[in-house]
């Protein structure tokens, strides 16, 4: 697994760079994991109904609206995924393991994909597959401005609000969460790590 750390980066720039990493992954047959965060923005997937009270950025991932902001750890996962269902289960397993360690009350919901504590959504995921390699990934709220995140319903889900690790009483740094995500993804995919 090749690891890329981009820090705080504009969504549009990250999207262009992700396409470059995806092309590399398609050519080299390696798994590429990207960690970053974005300045405040709202992205919408291919299932988006439109008519939002905020400016949005269209994407080719699935799902509806997602808020990105500093304090959110985004993991873009450009992995070899010849069997998308198996790949998805491994991603889910990795974040299930993360929450088992950090916040056991959080659980994954199949009918409205993501991780929740009651009606509070703490992590969103969305993927697309091209040439047998995955695109997009998982956004985990570590310590974000919840007022900005709750200007829209996460993923356009009625009666759902955004939350974060910090809001749920879990005080960890972005670096600590990144290390845990890396560990659980590595375990789920059993893939050694190389920094890019």
Structural class call reads alpha/beta
Question: Superfamily at the CATH H level?
Answer: Bira Bifunctional Protein, Domain 2
Return the domain count: 1
| Order of SSEs | EHEEEEEHEEEEHEHE
How far is it from the N-terminal to the C-terminal residue, by CA?
10 Å
The major sheet is characterized as:
9 strands, mixed
Helix fraction? 25-40%
CATH class: Alpha Beta
Looking at the overall shape, the CATH architecture is: 2-Layer Sandwich
Number of helices: 4
Oligomer: single chain
Summed over residues and divided by their number, the pLDDT gives a mean of 94
Q: Can you put this structure into words, describing what you see?
A:
29% of the residues lie in helices and 30% in strands. The chain has a single domain, classed as 2-Layer Sandwich (BirA Bifunctional Protein, domain 2). It is globular and about 40 Å long. It has helices spanning 11-28, 84-102, 146-149, 174-189, and strands at residues 2-8, 32-37, 41-44, 57-58, 65-68, 72-78, 107-108, 115-117, 120-130, 133-141, 161-162, 194-195. It contains 4 helices and 12 strands, in the order βαβββββαββββαβαβ. Strands 1, 2, 6, 7, 8, 9, 10, 11 and 12 form a 9-stranded mixed β-sheet that branches. Strands 4-3-5 form a 3-stranded mixed β-sheet, with no helix packed on it. The N and C termini lie close together (10 Å).
């Amino acid at each position: 697994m090749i690891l890329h750390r981009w820090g705080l980066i504009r969504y549009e720039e990250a999207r262009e760079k992700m396409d470059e990493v995806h092309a590399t992954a398609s050519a080299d047959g390696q798994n590429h994991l990207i960690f970053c965060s974005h300045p405040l923005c709202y992205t919408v997937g291919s299932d988006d109904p439109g008519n939002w009270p905020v400016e949005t950025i269209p994407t080719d991932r699935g799902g509806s609206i997602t808020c990105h902001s500093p304090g959110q750890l985004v993991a873009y996962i450009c992995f070899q995924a010849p069997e998308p269902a198996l790949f998805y289960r491994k991603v889910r397993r990795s974040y299930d393991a993360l929450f088992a360690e950090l916040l056991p009350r959080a659980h994954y919901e199949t009918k409205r994909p993501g991780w929740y504590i009651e009606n509070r959504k703490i992590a969103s995921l969305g993927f697309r597959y091209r040439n047998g390699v995955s695109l997009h990934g998982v956004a985990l709220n570590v310590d974000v401005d919840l007022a900005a995140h709750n200007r829209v319903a996460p993923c356009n889900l009625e009666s759902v609000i955004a939350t974060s690790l910090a809001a749920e009483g879990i005080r960890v740094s972005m670096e600590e969460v990144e290390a845990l995500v890396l560990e659980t993804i590595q375990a789920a995919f059993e893939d050694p790590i190389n920094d890019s």
